[in-house]
Design goal:
The chain is built from three helices and five strands. Helix 2 packs antiparallel against helix 3. A five-stranded mixed β-sheet has the order 3-1-2-4-5. The chain starts with a strand and ends with a strand. The protein is of the alpha+beta class and about 120 residues long.
């Protein structure tokens, strides 16, 4: 199966379990890999024959900016569900990276894959 990959999408959102984390948006980094059929678009060179990743990106940003999460697991699940609701997408792999979540670590991330 073919894939479209969106790398290092930085989005501000309310995320975390501590009181101070609930007051201001923090940046999370998303990496999204969607499986879809790209052969037709590869031959036709037409946007209508593929998944419009610019539109998908805008929808993901809208979801994250307008939502609040306690866990990065929930954020990943929400993004995967949005991807799978997009026509042509048959599988989604989502990584949500939360910089500075652990002392002495650059970041903590979860990665999920949903058919």
């Amino acid at each position: 199966m073919d894939r479209i990959i969106i790398r290092d999408l930085k989005i501000p959102t309310i995320i975390g379990t501590f009181e101070w984390e609930r007051k201001e948006k923090q940046d999370v980094i998303l990496n999204i890999e969607i499986s879809c059929e790209l052969r037709k678009a590869g031959k036709s060179d037409k946007l209508d024959d593929t998944v419009d990743y610019k539109t998908l990106k805008k929808r993901i940003i809208g979801l994250m900016v307008n939502s609040e999460y306690f866990l990065i697991e929930k954020a990943a699940e929400s993004v995967a569900e949005l991807c799978l609701a997009t026509p042509g997408v048959v599988k989604a792999k989502v990584t949500v990276d939360k910089p500075g979540a652990l002392r002495y670590a650059r970041s903590v991330a979860v990665e999920i894959e949903r058919p």
